[in-house]
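Before relying on records like the one below, remember that each one covers exactly one chain. Contacts with other chains, cofactors or solvent are not represented anywhere in the record.
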Amino acid sequence: MSETKSLTIRRRNDPQDRSVLRKSERTRQSILNAAVKFLSTHPFRDLTVAHLMSLAGTSRSAFYQYFGDLHDLMETLMQGLEEDIFHVAAPWFQGDDDPTPLLEQTMAGLVQLCYRQGSILQAVADAAPMDERLEKSWMDFLTAFDDAVTDRIEEHQAIGMIEPFDARPVAIA
């Protein structure tokens, strides 16, 4: 089984971490997993609630218990991805050791994460122009990430670890 098919979207404080999930959490998780599975082989524009629920093995009405529409589902997937990105970047953002190996570790983790969850990134890129809320959420995340990178570079500059330069364009890149 490929990594994409076994991917489980997890949230901070998600009941997924408990050994026994309530039925409602299992249903919600199965919908998210079905979306990831679908998006690994199809573009977002081909996603329908009916097809998604067929993959999840539950009723169409169950979808609307957890998500307002497909863009809401995408926002949930994106939020999970954002949490994963900040988690993977934590060694460099928070580490006190030599920043070079921490940055290398972080970059390797980010590349692996993007490889595993590239279908979500592609779907967000496809869906965001059609939904202002999703587009704003994505832009807010990118800004927050760029801010965190800028701050970390400037911290390293302030203590003389790296030469001064305009950190923001590097962070955005």
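The first helix runs from residue 3 to 6.
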